[in-house]
């Protein structure tokens, strides 16, 4: 039989030196005990006695898992039993044990089956002294553990406010979703209004102290009023969150938000500065089964944004309907550009009529989106989105091309004075694209004379326009294109300023005209304003178109006042191009 390649030397196994073995066991600094098959202590060393604050001899004969030795429970006890029966290799467990003086210790207890070592001994015959089958060693890991805990604390807390940070907050949200006793969860997600200004003007030191002071007040709110014990966390910057782990309903969350707003109302005295801040709070409260940590945070984020949008210094409650609306806005916004490429838009034309002779002079091009799922959408639904995300540039270019091509077709197909076409231009088209080049190219491509094109810009687009936009307006005007101010009267209404711009026409906003809709609802002030506006405009060489002319008496009054042209349902709604052809042919 082949023996092992390297046999353990006898002086190491101490096979023949039982007393030395006993002495080594006794005096080892590592707390140890030998256990028999049933888990009783056969012998315990001095180090274990010291650890447990008792004479090691008193431990002999006691079950090692008894309360006076090591308190084991649950899984630890099962594993311990399995280890005793020699069914497993060494097992290791972390336990809390109480020292003799009552101080708790964190220990790592290792059980090593002795049968697994080279020195397996035959079981002792019944009645004889128990044979040790297992070595139990106990490491005191209290210090290591407290260090670990300190590190974890550092990792999970914000140094400025000492509040739990984002990482700990998410851990607690996940835990609360799993075992909230009420099955509901609530969250107040808040952002300080005006904090950035304080930070920027007074410096980070004051900023940090303010954050700390805010944190104290929030903590007070979260523990006050008997409902207390809610987690307060700093999620970063000037964002905080209060978590209602066992939420009882919406009211509890909004009450807490009210308390927070009230608590922040008192000014803060910091480093000789009296500082005022307020907070915007997004409140979300829902059933745990219907949300996830990310779902909850997304809702809170959206709701906080609403609170800010609604005017700050307030809380706003999550509203599923408002959210659905936001989602459609988002998806509409994302689909705009591809929709231009797919040709999902069409242009309708609304007649602009001479007030003196009711003759058709021109048409305003108004775009519509034939959305494959939502159907026909009016420009109010998507123009603001297109302005926001820049899709207005390709969309506006398409409308311009389409409108000029159509106007040229009418010019070629019909005798008599030709129609002009009026195209809306958004601010961004002036800033973000080369409008002058686009217009020149479209006129050249379609063959439409520049005099038959009018561009409508709002006051805000042309006012304060230094540099590029002003130059663009001048170039367009030099080309022969007419510039009109759309919705005049809703903005600055600064006629003197307009006189210095190459503007040729004003489109009076519908709100003016509405004031004298019927004789009965006549508002003399409106009539006086409109009348002097028209006079002044004429003196400056501008023509005036009234928008939203809905009735005969309005048209009559506008004509008397001296308005040049009118547009509105009284004459016609926006129409498909062939209906305009019909009007031109006198059908
Ligand atoms: P806008 O340029 O002031 O266009 C006039 C709006 O008033 C049109 O609404 C028109 O349908 C409506 N309207 C016309 N007559 C009457 C009336 O008698 N009573 C009332 N209550 N309303 C009347 P629409 O077509 O919904 O367009 C809304 C706005 O969308 C337009 O206001 C314009 O600012 C913008 N828009 C439309 N097409 C374009 C475009 O191609 N480019 C850009 N940038 N904006 C566009
Ligand atoms: Mg317009
Ligand atoms: Mg208008």
List the keywords.
587 residues, alpha/beta, Beta-Lactamase, Alpha-Beta Plaits, TIM Barrel, 3 domains, eight-stranded mixed β-barrel, five-stranded antiparallel β-sheet, 22 helices, 43% helix, 22% strand, elongated, disordered N terminus, binds ligand C2E, binds magnesium ion
Word description of this protein:
- This protein is α/β, with parallel strands linked by helices and 587 residues long.
- It has three domains: 137 residues, 2-Layer Sandwich (Beta-Lactamase); 162 residues, 2-Layer Sandwich (Alpha-Beta Plaits), CATH 3.30.70; 256 residues, TIM Barrel, CATH 3.20.20.
- Helices cover 43% and strands 22% of the residues.
- It has 22 helices and 21 strands.
- The strands form four sheets. Strands 13-14-16-17-18-19-20-21 form an eight-stranded mixed β-barrel, surrounded by five helices. Strands 2-1-5-4-3 form a five-stranded antiparallel beta sheet, with helices on both faces.
- The N terminus is likely disordered.
- The site of ligand C2E has 23 residues, from strand 14, helix 12, helix 13 and strand 18.
Strand neighbour order, sheet with most strands: 13-14-16-17-18-19-20-21
How many structural domains can be distinguished in the coordinates?
3
Q: Provide the CATH superfamily of the largest domain.
A: EAL domain
Helix content: 40-55%
> What structural class do you assign from the helix and strand content?
alpha/beta
């Amino acid at each position: 039989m082949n023996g092992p390649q390297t046999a353990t030397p006898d002086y190491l196994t101490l096979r023949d030196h039982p007393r030395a073995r006993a002495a080594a066991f006794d005096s080892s600094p590592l707390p140890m005990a030998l256990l028999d098959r049933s888990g009783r202590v056969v012998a315990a060393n001095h180090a274990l006695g010291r650890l447990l604050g008792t004479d090691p001899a008193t431990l002999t004969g006691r079950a090692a898992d008894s309360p006076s030795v090591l308190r084991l429970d649950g899984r630890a006890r099962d594993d311990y039993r399995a280890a005793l029966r020699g069914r497993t290799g060494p097992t290791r467990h972390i336990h809390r044990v109480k020292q003799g003086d009552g101080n708790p210790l964190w220990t790592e207890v290792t059980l090593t089956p002795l049968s697994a070592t080279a020195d397996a001994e035959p079981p002792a015959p019944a009645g004889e002294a128990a044979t040790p089958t297992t070595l139990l060693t106990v490491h005191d890991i209290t210090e290591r553990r407290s260090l670990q805990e300190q590190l974890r604390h550092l990792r999970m807390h914000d140094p400025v406010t000492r509040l739990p940070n984002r990482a700990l907050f998410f851990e607690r949200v996940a835990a609360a979703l799993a075992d909230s006793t009420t099955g509901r969860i609530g969250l107040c997600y808040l952002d300080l209004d005006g904090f950035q200004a304080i930070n920027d003007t007074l410096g980070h030191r004051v900023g940090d102290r303010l954050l700390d002071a805010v944190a104290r007040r929030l903590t007070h709110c979260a523990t006050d009023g008997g409902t207390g014990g809610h987690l307060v966390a700093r999620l970063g910057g000037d964002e905080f969150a209060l978590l209602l782990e066992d939420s009882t309903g919406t009211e509890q969350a909004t009450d807490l938000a009210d308390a927070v707003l009230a608590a922040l109302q008192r000014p803060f005295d910091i480093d000789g500065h009296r500082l005022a801040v307020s907070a915007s709070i997004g409140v979300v409260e829902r059933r745990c089964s219907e949300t996830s940590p990310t779902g909850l945070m997304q809702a809170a984020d959206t709701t906080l944004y609403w609170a800010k949008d609604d005017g700050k210094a307030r809380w706003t409650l999550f509203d599923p309907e408002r959210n659905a609306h936001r989602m459609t806005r988002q998806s509409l916004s994302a689909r705009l550009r591809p929709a231009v490429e797919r040709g999902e838009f069409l242009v309708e034309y609304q007649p602009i009529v001479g007030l003196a002779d009711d003759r058709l002079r021109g048409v305003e091009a108004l775009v519509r989106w034939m959305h494959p799922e939502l159907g026909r959408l009016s420009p109010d639904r998507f123009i603001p989105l297109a302005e926001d995300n820049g899709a207005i540039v390709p969309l506006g270019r398409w409308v311009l091309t389409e409108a000029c091509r159509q106007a040229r077709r009418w010019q070629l197909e019909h005798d008599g004075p030709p129609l002009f076409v009026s195209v809306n231009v958004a601010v961004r088209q002036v800033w973000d694209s080369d409008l002058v080049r686009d217009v020149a190219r479209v006129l050249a491509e379609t063959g439409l004379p520049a005099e038959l094109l009018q561009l409508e810009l709002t006051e805000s687009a042309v006012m304060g326009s230094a540099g590029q936009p002003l130059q663009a307006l001048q170039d367009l005007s030099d080309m022969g294109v007419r510039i009109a101010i759309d919705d005049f009267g809703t903005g600055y209404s600064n006629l003197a300023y307009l006189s210095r711009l190459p503007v040729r026409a004003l489109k009076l906003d519908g709100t003016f005209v509405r004031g004298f809709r019927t004789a009965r609802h006549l508002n003399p002030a409106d009539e006086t304003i409109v009348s002097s506006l028209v006079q002044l405009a004429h003196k400056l060489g501008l023509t005036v178109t009234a928008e939203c002319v809905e009735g005969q008496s309005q048209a009559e009054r506008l004509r008397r006042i001296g308005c040049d042209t009118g547009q509105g349902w009284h004459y016609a709604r926006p129409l498909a191009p062939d209906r305009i052809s019909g009007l031109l042919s006198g059908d």
